[in-house]
Amino acid sequence: MTFLKDFINTLSAASTSFLLLTSVFAFVVFFNLLEGKIRSKVGAIFIAFGTLFVVVGFAVRPLLYLGIAYFVILFMLSNLGGRLWDKRVGLRLLIGALAAFGLSMLDPNFFLIAAKPDNVPIGAMIFLLGIFTWIALRKAYLNDRQLAAGGIPWEKTESDEKLFTWPDLVYTEMLCMILLTIVMIVWSIALRAPLEEAANPTSSPNPAKAPWYFLGLQEMLVYFDPWLAGVVLPTLIIVGLMAIPYIDTNPKGNGYYSFRERKWEIGVFLYGFLVLWSFLIITGTFLRGPNWNFFGPFEYWDPNKLVPLVNVDLSEIIWVKLLGMPLPKLWILRESFGILLVLAYLSLPPLLAAKPFRRFYLKMGGPRYYVGSFLFLFMMALPIKMVLRWLFNLKYIVHIQEIFFNI
Amino acid sequence: MKPQEPIPHNYSMAKLNLIFAVSALGLLFVTGGIVLYDYVRGWKWFQWEFIRIQQERLQQDLRAAQQGENRTRMAQLDKQIKQQELTIAAHRQQYVLAQRDLDQWEGQHYAADEDYRFAKANLDAKRYELEMAVLQKRRDRAQTRKEYIDLSNHVDDLQLRLQAVTRDRDAVQARVNAWLKKIKDAEDTRKQLTASIDLVKKQLAAVSTNGQFFILNAPMLDFISPTFKIDQVVLPDLFVNVNYMEVPRVDRCQTCHRAIDQPGFESKKEAARLSAELQQKLDTYQIPQNKRAATEQRIAQLKRIQDAPQEILNPWRTHPKLDLFVGSASAHPLLEYGCTSCHHGMDRATEFGRAGHVPPNAKMERRWSGFWNVAKRQWGYEENPFDETPMYPRQYYEAGCVKCHANQVQIKGGAQITRAEATVELIGCYACHKIANWRFTGLRKPGPDLTGIAEKTTPEWAIRWISEPHDFRSTTRMPSFFYQRNMVGPAVPAAERAQNIKYQDAEIRAIVEYLFSKSKHRVWPAPGPGDAARGKQLVNTIGCLGCHVDTETVKGATTGEMRLARRTDFPLERNYGFNLTGVGTKTNAAWIYNWVRNPKAYYPEAPMPSLRLSDQEAADVTAYLVTLQKPQFMQKPIRPVDPEAVRELAKGYLVNTRTDRDAEAKLKTMPMHEQLVYLGQRSIEKYGCYSCHNIDGFEGLKPIGTDLTIEGSKALHLFDFGFVHDYKAEDGVHEHVLHTVPSWIYNKLRSPRIYDDLRTKAYNDKLKMPNFHLTPEEARLVTTVVLGLTKDQIGADKIAATDPQTRAAQEGLKLVSQHNCRACHIVDGYGRAIASLISDTNFLPPDLTPEGARAQSPFLFNFLKDPTVMKIRPWVSVRMPTFQFTDAEANTLVGMFAAEGKAHEFDNAVYSMPPASNVAVGREVFNMLRCAQCHATTPVNPEAPPVPKTASTQSLAPNLTLARVRLRHDWIPDWIRRPNEMIPGTRMPANFPRDPATGGFISPLANAIDSPQFAKSKAALMPYFKSEADLKRTMADPVALTEYLRDYIWSIGITQIRAAAPNQAPAVIAPPSMPKQLPAMKTGRAEQGGGVTAGR
Question: CA B248, B249, B255 angle in degrees (round to 5)?
Fold first, then answer.
């Protein structure tokens, strides 16, 4: 049991990087699962990828766990196939997850964090997110199957029915209202408001955490400077959400659930929402302890835990480590590799538009293509930076302290 | 129009209705839940329970009042009343007739009275009419005047009639009253008897739980006027710090601690203690006459508490010291001081955990933590991590005194904290840890001067001493710095331990090398031949043992076997000087000789006073002290120092300021001796030796330790608890480390290196606080002081001892503490540690509690500066030492004595001359009371009066001719009247006993003057009185008699003594020539050769 907990503790540190690394691929697997098949070619790539992890993992220990976990999930998903959307299978998954959570509550350290009144809603959020995502995808799967068979979406058949406002709608709404009120009252009585000491600017709590809905942003601050993580990226999130109706002009899937007709749209949204937003909130709540250090779910939040701060800049890696030279005095020269790398990253859309993504370019038109792909690039900047940090201790790609411009 | 197609319902309406019904009910229940949740509070339960306890108590009181003799008397009265009623009934006819008569007369009286009053009103109106008629010269004024006169006559008639009727009515009334009086008298007596019962009944009604009580306290209705409510005291000038703002305290403790200010809810133990205390006061006439009855009632109440079936538990107990705290007549009334200002804790909280209760020990913590169970005293306690000022646990209660009383050496009623502060002063915590309050500033360095160490001892001794001072003297205050738990303890890995030992060896050797190389080398004259036996006699009798202990073993209290002594085995004051054991091993005859002759010659700030030993006496004492050897100490092996360890350590310091290469180069240029001196200097810096000792080269450095000025307010998270939870202390006691500040401090004191357990630290980073080998009791006392050092803000008028007179007194008391006067004297009620060594109380140094009221200031000043100016009791062998006080110090002491004795510093009555007649009467009274049996009245040399030759030491008394320059004019008669009350246990007989009834004095001559043996005296006295009655009146008056006695004593006294000799200047001794470097050392049994000296 102790071994298992230790394993999970280590794993959880690694699994964050794992989830981000593999989530892109996981979605591709999902697409294929939704279609009820895995192409042998893609499957071979995944297996090769996992094997690489395990092999490298013998040298870099977290990667070993990562690889193992990767295979476990891959196996689970491929075996389940189309049956993942079976109601009974869904229920079993839910019960399994609840049981795992309940068993974990027996651990005093886990209980201390999970049962904290502030954190209870985040715990509920994990399950609610899972349930609703599953329901949405299940509906999409059923519709897709129906559409493939030449049928019409389920919503279409439903919209032809007629219903009374009273009592069918208003009455049930009122019942929901009453029941929800009961739940809220019981909750507020059962879990006391987690009031702390009087605020004292000279002694801040440790860990000092943002409100739960900003924990994703706080997590971003670990990897980016405030001007990026606190200003540019949140602005782009809002702008990007506003831009969705103008970028996404796909008329299919309007008013009904469908995945096959909106693979990219749903994939990108779910990745941004589930992985880059919700998952980071959960991480910030349950896995970030004193001094914002990373703690496994069964680990004691020891304020004295020390983690070495040994991050380096890209310029150091290239100039000092690879080339064995001192850092150039001139910052433009020193940071030239980083700047080139960033420029290259940003010039991906026009390059890709030329050949591989030509189809997209033609379908969306220039402005939509460029706005959409730039937003996507900025979104992906976060997981890329995170993975670079974990694997290479990379602090900044571009680090110009002379003008306080760091990426 | 086409009829609409029927649309089917999506849901079953019946089912929806059912869901609605169920959920509506659910909502109702949870709404009730809100109300209930809001209503149910822990403190309400405590109040409810207290009502029950009160009812129980009052019913018990009621039963007590109704029982016993009251009961029979009441029954008698009831019977009497009934009998009277029967008598009245028997003569009912007469009574009824009288009553009827009275009624009739009442009616007539009413009518007559009304007629009279109305007529008088008419008369007044008529008078006005007449006056107006006269003024306006109206024609009918004559008529009006006539009418007025008629009316006036009529009024007079009516008045007469009224008087007649009233008289008649009163007569009838008296007849009726005579009937009624018989019953009324009995009823009045009964009312008096039942007054106390009625009071209890009224109180019972006030706490009854009737219908009204339930309505007032019902949920939702309890906003109107509930009896369950939060009680609070607002304290505008006692503050609680809320981050940058000081807000007044609002203490709500009374919400649950209901009876804290009401006597009658003491625990049985407290009740027993209090009733014994009060009874004792009652028996010794310490309680004024008008309060004796109330005191007796209180004792009866306390007795009832002891007999009650149920014990009162906290939080419903009365404060155990109502006379000092909380009580409205005490020094700290509840409404002005509240609770948290002393106890700490969250003032506004009303829940057990939130209020900041702190368990005093691990056992209590476990019990409190249990799920709420009243019977088991479990309160669901949880540590509140957000409480910045948790309460002081029980054993540290008196820490709360410090913040207001930091200006005082002694806190009245605070025996613990006074002793705790004295302990801190003695151990010398303030030397390393700055404590910036008045109490702990301006104190001398606790350790001896080391600038002349080479004159005093040898390096071999010093090395062994520093290694483990307690091996040499088990009671020493010098702490152990080396070979401690974090260096050589069981938790340290073996390889590291070996390395640590090498390093520690090197550091000790280096420190000694430094001290001896910097030491002065004066050559002190050697003593002449001395007699050790006489020396021993001197040490035992002249008072050395007041400050010094001369033994290292004591008999264990439990086992009865001899064991090594601890400091706590002796009175605090006797630990002031070093333990004399082994002093001959430590130092040499020449040094001892010169030290005991004049300590200030060696070191001008030496705390040791001069006992004015003659050269021969000093030689004898020296001869004795050098025989106090401890040879086994010098047999302890000294490990040869590893030069590599010295090099490594020295380099460790050198690389702080230079590169490794430069450090190596520098080391190469330094011979071993230089390396050692360098390392020694750095090690003295590291361990802070200079904080306690004067060391050449370390003048003016800041003390080494953490500033403790506001340590008691330091937040819990700033304390490093390391990894230790419990451990076995060096004295075998199993100690627990709770996660509280008091526990941290306590364990730090008990085992200063404990928080290094299991930690991985570099050698120089390990904890350095030395081990004082404190007993649990000492550690508790010191912890109390540290906890009391807070940053709490207090209103100016709450700070104690701020008026100039008290300040002067406290300065003096600080001097008393610094010079250890209490070793020999009782000052302000306690002290005289030497008493245990002197069996005959007549040979004890005096009790100085009344000294200010007793001695004249000029005498006291001179005597303090130079005790040779007068010898009051020449038979006492203990010598008052010469402290070489400065004038300022002597004045401070004189002022302190005056303030403590509640006397003015200056006494003009000193110059009064008694009339000759008074002197003559006084002489006669002196003879009659036979004072001369003990007191001599022949003039003597005040500096060397002869020892009276008497059969028994009981009758040794001072020569009275010395009284006039010494004693206060007013004090003498007072002293003669009540010697035993002023100084309990004095040999002076009480000639004027107190009358137990009135508390006044009785004169023994009141009747004796008529006895034949005083016939001659009577005849001699007669000329001075107007009559025999006058004489007898005077002889019966204790005040007059004692004043005559005083006048006589005044008349025979000498009027002048010699002024104090000026302080001696420290002797200047020519610097001699002695080797600057250490000689090769004898390293004891395990002599191996090699070592440092070989490597040089």
Answer: 145
